[in-house]
Amino acid sequence: MSGFFREGNALVCDGVGLEAVARAHGTPVYVYSAESIRGAYSALDTAFAAHPQRIHYASAVDANSMGEIELAMRAGYPPSDIVFTGVGKTPEELDRAVALGLKAINAESAGELERIDRAAQGRGVRARVALRVNPDINSGTHPHISTGLHVNKFGVPLERARAIYRKMVNQPGLQPVGIHVHLGSQIITLDPLQKATSMVVKLAHELRDVGLPIEYVDLGGGLGISYDGSRVPDAEQYARAVLPLVQSSGLSIVLEPGRLLVGGSCALVARIVDIKDGPGGRHFAVIDASMTELIRPALYGAFHRIDAVTPRADRELSYDVVGPVCESSDAFGEERRLPALEVGDLLAILDAGAYGSAMGSTYNRRPLAPEVMIDGGKTMVIRRRQTFEEMLALEN
Ligand SMILES: Cc1ncc(COP(=O)(O)O)c(C=O)c1O
Questions:
Q1: In terms of pTM, does the model score above 0.90?
Q2: What is the pLDDT of residues 279-292, one digit of tens each?
């Protein structure tokens, strides 16, 4: 068994007790299961094994900034394995991306392609590019993480994409190699993903017919996970939905999963620092983690399961689990039924592996929390806790 489960009364990660991790590394602390990350990766890899494909994990290797490109290279990935996506790349970023010779720059507009063309010609090279198509498809996800509707800032509409690709024939600095689409995140129905796949495969055929040798379709990321235990499509169902649309096309597939690979593999472990009465017989359980560690609930009302690490009573009470930061949005769950809690108890906020630590901040002058990986019974600190000195080092 991998991930988070109970051994006796105690919540463990891959068999290692979260009480011991919290004692050794302090709280709040992010705890990851290496085994469940491997499991999620291999489920996706196996599901798509019948077709030439590459998994570009977002956010390294599918990089959204120069910082992520830097991270990917330091982790050992060659530039030829990195795609660079993102609205609003600066001239410096584009020039560096061209100089590195990335697998592709996923361009967001005709203007950006002109800038890439100029940068590439200036260096006497051809930059591999894909254009991000905005398919105007509703993926049914939260508006803040929807990226494939015409009102969203991402990509270009299909009609314009055709003309922009055709123009590339006369842009000597550009080598169009792929078509990119990414509908959004936490998508839990397959229909929109299928529609987007059909659209880009059809476009690739049209472009090949006019002499543009498109190598691959980049289907983006977006497949969601279950935060509340309800059924959601898995990697195999996703593959069964989209593979038939690509199979006979001669195109390979690029996937950019993020949440799917890491979301369920992590818990944010926090200690209760105060308990007080709230309205209507509820209680506030104030923990030492806040929106600075995990902003998803504050940012888009995201739901995370919350469990007591070592439940101490059969009696359940109703708790609002909140953080110490000076905003009422700094809350993790309302009216949660939990075993009677005491100050000093540990809570685990589950499924915190995606858009958790990476979106952490030092608001309220709170140092960044550490990240700990459990692998084969061993505990590794993969990012240590920031010190006050480090947090304040840039300030004059
Ligand atoms: C272009 C792109 N690809 C992939 C992803 C990963 O999305 P998810 O974590 O939903 O799979 C993102 C996330 O923001 C993205 O912007």
A1: yes
A2: 888 999 999 999 99
According to the model, what pLDDT value does residue 110 have? 98
Contacts of 342 (CB under 8 A, 6+ apart): 272, 275, 312
Active site residues: 326
Match 């509908």 to its residue by tokens: 183
In this predicted model, what pLDDT tens digit does every residue of 65-97 receive, in sequence order?
999 999 999 999 999 999 999 999 999 999 999
Pocket test for ligand 1, best of 64, 65, 189, 359 (most atoms within 8 A of CB): 64
Q: Which residues contact 123 (CB under 8 A, 6 or more apart)?
A: 98, 99
Q: Which of 103, 226, 256 to mutate to test the pocket of ligand 1 (most atoms within 8 A of CB)?
A: 256
pLDDT digits over 144-191, tens only?
988 999 999 999 999 999 999 999 999 999 999 999 999 999 999 999
Dist. CA 249 → ligand 1 center (Å): 25
Q: CA-to-CA distance for 77 and 357, rounded, in angstroms?
A: 22
How many whole angstroms separate alpha carbon 22 and alpha carbon 310?
A: 12
Say yes or no to pLDDT of 222 above 90.
yes
Measured on CA atoms in the order 105, 111, 115, 120, is the torsion positive or negative?
A: positive
The rounded distance, in Å, linking the Cα atoms of 355 and 347 is 19
Is 290 close to ligand 1, i.e. is its CB under 6 Å away? no
Residue 1: band (very low, low, confident or very high) from pLDDT cuts 50, 70, 90: confident
363 CA distance to ligand 1 middle (Å)? 25
- Within 10 angstroms of residue 213's Cβ, the number of other Cβ atoms is 10
- Phi, psi values for residue 146, rounded to 5°: -90, 135
Taking each helix axis as running N to C, give the angle between helix 110-123 and helix 158-167, from 0 to 180 degrees, rounded to the nearest 10: 20
Is 171 near ligand 1, meaning CB less than 6 Å away? no
Please state the rounded mean pLDDT for residues 363-374: 98
What sign does the dihedral 260-357-67-157 (CA atoms) show? positive
Residue partners of 322: CB distance under 8 A and separation at least 6: 284, 285, 286, 287, 330, 331, 332
- C-alpha 129/C-alpha 106 separation (Å) is 6
Q: How many CB atoms lie within 10 A of CB 234?
A: 17
